[in-house]
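INPUT
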Amino acid sequence: MSGAPATGNLLRDVPERLAEEQFRDLVAAPGLRITRIVSTGQSTGWQEPCEDEFVLVLTGSGTLRFAADDRLLTLGPGDWCHIPAGVRHRVEGTDPDRPTVWLAVHFGGPGERE
Amino acid sequence: MSGAPATGNLLRDVPERLAEEQFRDLVAAPGLRITRIVSTGQSTGWQEPCEDEFVLVLTGSGTLRFAADDRLLTLGPGDWCHIPAGVRHRVEGTDPDRPTVWLAVHFGGPGERE
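OUTPUT
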């Protein structure tokens, strides 16, 4: 069972201004989702997901806040962060002057592997 | 069971010249591996992996060849490709003048989910 290769570019069709973050799934498989996220300054509420998340910033920048120690972590181009399941965090904000393009990999959620 | 967040930068400590491709695992979890790959012109032999592979080019460029239709696909910054398990392919070569930095996500291999 081999499908055809799929391809695209994360930096193409990047909206300059958004009312809300934009999510575009590139791959969805059992136990895994790979998504392009575009933010234009948005923050998020607190999240405590039941799956791991790996994020990578391609352009722009974004700041994460972690509840455990109230630590701030700002990610710029090339920076990645692996946030294990259950780690309470939020996006504090992203670059207000240009779009921030993230690659996000969600994996290991319960019940997704069946 | 929540570990601490881990972070790093894909564009830091990039060797300019390598005898062989360099692999650095960022995340290893059941059924998933996220790896930084640095190539400085290398090609590979034919591969027909039993797991899916998602690759993204951050800097430089790389050309994939697919056996089924002998198609060439050149990926530059921001370009990604999802190569399903069982798709026979090789890396034809990468930019000879500068390092090519890839993010690779391998997932869905048999027996890795136990």
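end of record. Chain A has a mean pLDDT of 93.
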